């Protein structure tokens, strides 16, 4: 199919694809190496692969293909992809050929992002986008090589959470327009975006539940959340108020009938008043999940309520506090004393419980 020929001291090869001759320099004076490259190209042609050296595939084109894949599969993270894409293309350039990137270039990108004080997890998400671009490009037959793309070590998950007593204090200090937001975050572990996008037609007042349709969830599956009694009262009262003052407003969480999009100042002010300066809204989600597990709700049901996709991600939110460890030690003491026959021993117990109740729980 092909042939080799020499120009000066360098060997060149010629082969055919779809009847079209393709010529390529081997960049070597070794005839043996030239024949190896020719054999490789002929194999690629037989497999229907166009040798990468002749494909002018840019990084921008790979990202366009990835966007198409996201659109076709209705992925919820298109906005994140476009943000990452902008940073990546700003660094490498839209016209950069995909085949020209290697591990060294990727390390240079990491260094540039870290110098801008970008967090490790954010950089890793961007590196993940680069990796998906190249893997999709290879699947599509546009490229044949994928550069080495490392990942940065990430810190352990944040361990912030709020106890029931602190929640009650915060509930008293937070503005009336944020009480539903606070309650849904703490009792049901809903994401901030889910709550802020909640409309009145998502609320079933007869069943006292909220329904998140598939297009509004990360998993793309319809999810139902039955409301805590506290939320039932808050939502009913708010609905009655809105019907009088802002009947055309569709938003459950709103100010003067307009959707709430920013509440950081109000949040920080209320948290500071109750001594929770470092509390962030997402800590409510962690607290909710921990409370569900503490109360005996199964992991499967808790994941359905919170909308977690995988058990591994869910477990990152199941935070163990110092109080949990303290109670574990107390339960261990009760168990060991029961084995030793110390039935009348004075044993520390959980507040609100007696020794027999705890022993019954353990058994």
SSE blueprint and pairings:
Blueprint: E1 3-7, E2 10-17, E3 20-25, H1 31-46, H2 59-72, H3 78-92, H4 103-115, H5 120-139, H6 164-173, H7 179-188, H8 192-196, E4 203-204, E5 209-212, E6 223-226, H9 229-245, E7 254-255, E8 258-259, H10 264-273, H11 282-294, H12 299-306, H13 311-317, H14 322-340, H15 355-362
Antiparallel strand pairs: 1-2, 2-3, 4-5, 5-6, 7-8
Explain what this protein looks like in three dimensions.
- With 363 residues, this protein is mainly alpha-helical.
- The protein has 4 domains: 3-54, no CATH class; 59-139; 164-317, hpI Integrase, Chain A (Orthogonal Bundle); 322-362.
- It is 51% helix and 9% strand.
- The strands form 3 sheets. A 3-stranded antiparallel sheet has the order 1-2-3, with helices on one face. A 3-stranded antiparallel sheet has the order 4-5-6, with no helix packed on it. Strands 7-8 form a two-stranded antiparallel ribbon.
- A hairpin with a 4-residue loop joins strand 4 (203-204) and strand 5 (209-212).
